[in-house]
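Changelog excerpt

This revision adds worked examples to the README so contributors can see how folded entries look when concatenated. The first example is reproduced verbatim below.
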Amino acid sequence: MNQPRQPAALRLTPPALRTALLFAASLIWLIFGGYLFAETRSVLPAILALLGLISAVIYGLALIPGGSYLETGPNGLTIGASFRKRSLAWADVEEFSVRQLGRKKKLVRYRLAPRTGEARGREELLPDTYGLEAEELAKQLNDMRRFYTAGGQPPAP
């Protein structure tokens, strides 16, 4: 019987072009809102400028290398977002699936193994699909989880 090949470790990052375009749009909101506020001294343009500032900071940080990524390997996966990282062992994750958000947006959902006293584990979302389709990313992560939790052996039929 053929042994399954060890899945290749992944290091995925969000598409830089998309992030740069969102950063540019945030700057436009900031500048436009600031201009309108200076002309009218109204609250609505100030809110627009504030939202532009907040999103420009978020997308600006995402443009810095190493700020946002998904890394996988034999021990589990590491999710990096806004220069914070969270590592999960493969055994801590029950499954990966796709979650539909709105009409077009899809993200990968993962369910953590239940803790003592819990009937079901918590469900969380990956912050991005890192340039892949959500279905493809979920499939790759499930394949890795099955491989590594089975000790490198094929899953039982």
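The second example, added in the same revision:
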Amino acid sequence: MRPASVVLPAAALILTAALAGAAPRRATSAAPASQDPQADLFGGYSYTHAGEASLHGGGLSGSFPWRDSLSLVADLSGHRGSFAGADLGQLAFMAGARWTWRPGRLCPFVEGLLGGVRTSASIDVAGASVSDADIDWGLAFGGGADYQLGERWAARGLVHLRLLRGEGAVDADPRIAVGVVYRFER
């Protein structure tokens, strides 16, 4: 996969989301307070399939409303696992934009993120430990939904496809996360 074939769709998605958020708001009655965009904090279980390895871990993300349905997002996730006798780790920090549709208790969203991923591997050979780590740039595209549990709390499920560019190749790693969201007062 060529980098241009990844970057152009990413730029189109982010531009479309930004323009949708910049559109003037329709003259309608005010939405209930629970439907207004709010800053939020998500924490939960996260799974990714990196290459042929299954890695388990956690995710933490926060978002801040920017324009109507558009929010700025920062996402941190860490995963660990093993494959073929090697201990593997992955730590990612990405930031970008999220567009959320708020029709009721179930609020679907789509997001595009850009950032870095630190991947590490270590293996014990004849009593000595050999390890390697590198940092690669990546993009993540995906979406999910929040289900309102109360005024401040929601359950979230999300799916990302992370495209990581390292060592001359692009690796596509799916990521799934589930957890809880706390929404701050406006």
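Reviewer comment on example two: The CA atoms of residues 119 and 134 lie 6 Å apart. Residues 3-16+38-183 form a domain with the Porin fold (CATH 2.40.160.20).
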